Amino acid sequence: MTDPYHGTHPRHALDEVMHAPVRFSIVATLAAADKAEFAFVRDTIEVSDSVLSRQVATLEKAGHVAVTKGYIGKRPRTWLALTPAGRTAFAAHCQALRAIAGNGG
Questions:
Q1: Which residues pair with residue 37 across a beta bridge?
Q2: What are the tens digits of pLDDT across the range 15-62?
Q3: Which segments constitute the Winged helix DNA-binding domain (predicted)?
Q4: Residues 6+ apart with CB under 8 A from 27
Q5: Domains of the chain (ranges plus CATH)?
Q6: 46, 80, 85, 102: which has the highest count of C-beta atoms within 10 A?
């Protein structure tokens, strides 16, 4: 008998942390670059500083995103980047989404 809580449906491969729409948008934006400035990500995914900060903290805690702080001249800057584990998780998450869509759910 198949365990109903650990089946073979592709949804079981979805990453629960990055599945949330804002977090998925952050990861998708970062997947296209080595790193991105906080303000660029904020403007690209159209959220406030506080929303982005909270969601990045969740992704960072999960090991998906690395946060680096520094300065350009005298202005403080924050850069975001996917970790190698984050890139792997994003690829697997996207593969699961394609499998779900391709199989009709």
A1: 79
A2: 999 989 999 999 999 999 999 999 999 999 999 999 999 999 999 999
A3: 22-100
A4: 18, 59, 64, 65, 82, 86, 90, 93
A5: 15-102 (1.10.10.10)
A6: 80
